[in-house]
Write a structure and sequence with these properties.
The protein folds into two domains: 55 residues; 67 residues. Helix content is 73%, strand content 0%. It has four helices and no strands.
Amino acid sequence: MEDKIKDALCDMYDIKRQSELHKFGKLPKDNEGTSTSILDCINSVICFLEKLDYPELSTDDLSNQVLTKIKKWLKDEVKEHQDCSDAYENGEEPIMSDHSDEICVGRHEVCVSLLYYIGYWEKEVK
């Protein structure tokens, strides 16, 4: 079955190239006044076949991977700017030599807030 999916994908990639080369991909898929083009249909079939051939790349899985990376980056930013944020909140002298502490504090606040809302939205969805 996998070979048939790979063959079908190769055929669809070839058809897509020809549709772009000969400009028939921009034509409507039917004569019923649809705005969907032949190329839209080709891309839809390719997407479907790719999901069959590479199920590990499902949209949900990719979204989870991206969200995990976003949360990791946000947590790293919180840690990086924690000292500046603490010093600013306690009225201490600026930590940054270029006096960009307020920027660091703003980044810290945004990252903390985003982490809070992501957690809230995740609970809301479940």
